[in-house]
Design a protein that fits this description.
Elements lengths: L31 E6 L11 E3 L4 E8 L2 E11 L8 E7 L7 E4 H4 L10 E2 L3 E4 L4 E4 L3 E3 L2 E8 L5 E12 L9 E9 L8 E7 L2 E11 L11 E5 L7 E2 L3 H4 L9 E2 L3 E6 L8 E7 L5 E3 L2 E6 L10 E10 L12 H4 L15 E3 L6 E5 L5 E4 L2 E9 L5 E7 L7 E8 L4 E10 L5 E8 L4 E3 L5 E2 L6 E11 L3 E11 L10 E9 L7 E9 L11 H4 L6 E3 L5 E3 L1 E4 L6 E2 H4 L6 E11 L3 E10 L2 E5 L2 E6 L10 E7 L2 E11 L5 E6 L7 E3 L5
Parallel strand pairs: 6-13
Antiparallel strand pairs: 1-12, 2-12, 3-11, 4-9, 4-10, 4-12, 5-6, 5-11, 7-8, 8-9, 13-23, 14-22, 15-20, 15-21, 15-23, 16-17, 16-22, 18-19, 19-20, 24-25, 25-26, 26-29, 27-28, 28-36, 29-35, 30-34, 30-36, 31-32, 31-33, 31-35, 37-40, 37-42, 38-39, 41-48, 42-47, 42-49, 43-46, 43-48, 44-45, 44-47
Length: 664
């Protein structure tokens, strides 16, 4: 496909000819290309910024005359960072930014989510994590670009390019690029949603709009109305939301050079999300004094959905100052990060049961109660998937529900049970716990289900002894708060994690040995031939290495990257001794970054050439411990990035003990 566009040049008046982008390459270019990026100024490979919460990073300060013609970013940060990191641009020393928007919305996708799409001025790839814009941004004197972290955690990696051209000169009346974020949550009754309210001379070049439905049905039917230079009747009056965004008969996910839809949840129920865009690149809308770009929210503004947007335009300075951005919690009213270990259930109904019963297709978890049905909520996780509930109807005091699930190992666990709170929800407690060998009464704290607004809360059960295989929790409605309209319960999901992981925290450690390739995990190094803590060997770069004793933190993570140098393309060994009072079968649980091999009593019991980050309990190894002291040798390869390991035995009663030497 060949794209024809009006050149967004700084020339005034705009050149009469319209040129093919490829044909321009056959002309001499009268500028010097420059770039500012996040490359590591020390010569290393740490080519990124980190931004602490509440802090602002200056991405670029550029002297003019010049024009930015490409910006690329990719970011590793907390969920929904697209709405938590604010991008600002200032031209010619101005105090009020000409560009101010959450970075995800500026690059075309709302709701704090990542999505792929391709248009002429903006492209996102790598599951939406690689963001590019090609808006032409000229300036006379200077440009200053910043990124502010309004999240609660440090932005761990902010990579970027800002490509620009140094120009001999710019015409005095050059218009400047602008972009502004706005939101109404909910849209105001009886008033059009406002994309842009600009004063001065310029031209409007497009927008994106993100919608979070607050009622079922089609969110569109709202007419676009654009008022130019103070007119009372709009000179541009449209026929419906999908029509303005250049589609028809509703919206569906699609991408085109000038219009598209990166996100549209097709159920159109309360909580469904969408993002659409329309770029007026071949058809910019000029204004001499002012412009107001608006759209109805539903026919004649009959809906109260949540709208948010970014408008893009060019104008001569000065520009009208922007209103303050809403705080993060108001920009993300239904975004809810999934807790660690949370499985978003995919429920299917079980037929033939005496009462309503549903089973999670992934985990096998089952939930049963009278008058039960699945419902989607408006809350969504970091992938954009909405949380569902299994909700009762007209529950009474004493109504019970049962939650059945399996665990591989009998241990002590912490459980978090998640429920939807709302105006008609009751109070809940856990009244019983059943397992393969027990049926116990259980008294938990009361979960108060009432809330004037729907939100997700949790009931925590700490240090509960579960048995291997199936376990069942009995839930019971105990009543309701004074303001509640009912006593229903709406189960969302659960997390569980061992509460008493007894990691081996004392080790003999040796390394690093040279390992230029992942296949070196199979290479035999001296510690495999003899496990003698008194020995010394030649290690990586021909440096002498010897055994030393280390003590980890309570987390159990042996951070080899922080303990050994060099720590790139290397192998290290950990040696510990484990005492068992008798011969026994056991399970050894390993987490490693990267590949790992394990020997128990000089027998290879596990080998995994993984390339991964380390987390507890990634690999499970059935082993046999002998009575007395057992020798445990761990070999870990570093392929790149982090380096370390976790080791523990399943030992709920704390029978086993470990040491760095055989005790007499």
């Amino acid at each position: 496909m060949v794209f024809f566009v009006f050149l967004l040049s700084a020339a005034s008046p705009i050149p009469a000819q319209v040129q093919d982008l490829l044909r321009q390459l056959g002309q001499h270019q009268n500028y010097t290309s420059k770039r500012i990026s996040s490359f590591d100024r020390t010569g290393g490979n740490n080519d990124r910024l980190s931004i602490e919460p509440g802090k602002t990073a200056v991405l670029a300060e550029i002297n003019g005359p010049a024009a930015i013609h490409h910006i690329w970013v990719t970011i590793a940060a907390e969920p929904f960072y697209g709405r938590k990191i604010i991008l600002r641009m200032y031209w010619d020393g101005e105090e009020s930014p000409s560009v101010e928007a959450p970075i995800g919305d500026f690059f075309g996708v709302g709701h704090g989510l990542n999505r792929n799409f391709s248009s002429l001025p903006i492209n996102c790839s790598s599951q939406g994590r690689a963001r590019n814009c090609y808006w032409y941004m000229p300036f006379h004197k200077s440009a200053r670009i910043t990124a502010t972290n309004e999240g609660t955690r440090t932005v761990g990696a902010f990579y970027y390019y800002i490509d620009y051209r140094e120009l001999p000169e710019l015409p005095p009346d050059t218009p400047y690029f602008h972009a502004q974020y706005r939101q109404e949550m909910p849209c105001q009754p009886g008033k059009n949603y406002l994309f842009l309210d600009a004063v001065g001379r310029g031209h409007y070049v497009g927008c994106n709009l993100s919608i979070l439905q607050r009622a079922m049905g089609w969110w569109g039917e709202g007419d676009d109305m654009i008022f130019v230079d103070g007119e009372e009747t709009p000179s541009l009056y449209g026929t419906g939301s999908e029509d303005y965004f250049s589609d028809a008969w509703g919206m569906r996910e699609d991408e085109n050079p000038f219009y598209g839809c990166p996100l549209q949840e097709s159920d159109f129920k309360t909580g469904a999300k969408a993002t659409v865009y329309r770029f007026h690149i071949p058809d910019p809308i000029p204004f001499k004094k002012s412009i107001r770009v608006t759209i109805e929210h539903g026919h004649a503004n009959d809906r109260s959905d949540f709208f948010s947007s970014v408008a893009y335009w060019y104008q001569s300075e000065p520009h009208k100052s922007f209103p303050p951005l809403p705080p993060v919690e108001e920009r993300l009213p239904f975004a809810l990060e999934s807790p660690s270990g949370f499985l978003l259930p995919d429920w299917e109904e079980l037929k033939g049961e005496k009462i309503a019963a549903y089973k999670d297709k992934f985990s096998g978890m089952e939930y049963k109660a009278e008058n039960l049905s699945p419902q989607l909520t408006s809350h969504y996780n970091q992938s954009g998937s909405r949380y569902s509930t299994l909700s009762t109807e007209k529950a009474q005091k004493g109504t019970q529900a049962s939650l059945s699930f399996s665990v591989e190992f009998g241990e002590h666990y912490n459980l978090d049970l998640y429920f939807l709170k709302g105006p008609a929800m009751g109070n809940i407690k856990v009244s019983g716990l059943k397992g393969r060998e027990h049926n116990l009464p259980f008294e938990s704290e009361i979960f108060e289900g009432y809330s004037p607004d729907k939100k997700i809360g949790k009931l925590t059960l700490r240090n509960v002894r579960l048995q291997s295989g199936e376990n069942e929790i009995i839930l019971q409605v105990t009543g309701k708060a004074a303001g509640s309209d009912g006593m229903d319960l709406a189960f969302v999901g659960m997390t569980l994690s061992p509460s008493q992981r007894r990691f081996i925290t004392e080790w003999n450690l040796i390394g690093p040995f040279d390992a230029p390739d992942m296949s070196c995990l199979q290479t035999v190094y001296p510690p495999e031939k003899e496990t003698d803590p008194k020995k010394k060997y030649k290690g990586k770069n021909n440096l002498e290495v010897k055994w030393r004793k280390i003590q980890t933190a309570a987390s159990g993570f042996v951070n080899l990257a922080g303990l050994l140098e060099p720590n790139e393309q290397a192998i290290a060994y950990g040696l510990a001794y484990v005492f068992s009072s008798e011969d026994r079968k056991a399970h050894l649980l390993i987490g490693s970054d990267d590949g790992v091999r394990i020997w128990l009593n000089n027998e290879l019991v596990h080998s995994n050439p993984a390339y991964r980050g380390a987390y507890p309990d990634q690999d499970t190894i059935p082993v046999e411990l002998k009575e007395g002291w057992n020798t445990l040798l761990v070999k870990v390869l570093q392929g790149g990035g982090g380096w370390g390991f976790y080791v523990r035995f399943v030992d709920p009663e704390g029978i086993l003990r470990s040491s760095t030497e055989i005790e007499k």
